[in-house]
Specification:
about 170 residues, alpha+beta, two-stranded parallel ribbon, 4 strands, about 40% helix, globular
Length: about 170
């Protein structure tokens, strides 16, 4: 345990973390709230740092499985975008890998046009790898804990049920 703590003490977190402040200038309205504003701000910052791809993770999914992150990264190698997709064709835009430059310009355009839906963040022209949630992710995340959202008190109650089956079996 001391060895782990020593390693943690050596990490300069300023080199691996940062804060990005939402840039509302595109919409000219500081009252509008949308995850797209945060994504746009992130793409803008990472583009200035010359990142080719951006991996987006939602902050309300505390049980994201590392194996699923590895799956997305591995599958994104020959693609611009990599995104989980449900059998009903819905996608998970807040757990995906995007082409930074293209996502920046598309998110900016969407904000200018007041189109805040996250499914508008994907472009059919991009070389996109869709990862089947049921066929590719479920085998490595049996109860799909990666996609469990915690936003309100009722979610905690739902989590108790998931906990009874998931953590005991996994």
């Amino acid at each position: 345990m001391q060895q782990i703590q020593n390693y943690i003490n050596l990490i300069d977190y300023r080199m691996v973390t940062g804060f990005i402040v939402d840039d509302n200038s595109v919409i000219g309205d500081k009252k509008t709230r949308s995850p797209l504003i945060g994504l746009y701000s992130t793409f803008k910052e990472l583009l200035s740092l010359h990142y080719e791809k951006t991996f987006i993770l939602a902050c309300d999914n505390p049980f994201i499985q590392f194996k699923v992150i590895e799956l997305l990264i591995f599958n994104s190698i020959n693609y611009e975008c990599c995104i989980p997709q449900w059998e009903n064709s819905f996608v998970e835009p807040l757990f995906a890998i995007y082409p930074t430059r293209k996502a920046y310009y598309l998110s900016k355009k969407n904000l200018e046009n007041k189109q805040f839906k996250l499914n508008k963040l994907l472009d059919r022209k991009w070389k996109t790898k869709y990862i089947s949630i049921e066929n590719e992710i479920k085998p490595i995340d049996n109860n799909l804990l990666t996609f469990v959202n915690l936003n309100k008190a009722e979610d905690i109650e739902d989590l108790k049920e998931i906990y009874k089956t998931s953590f005991i079996q996994d």
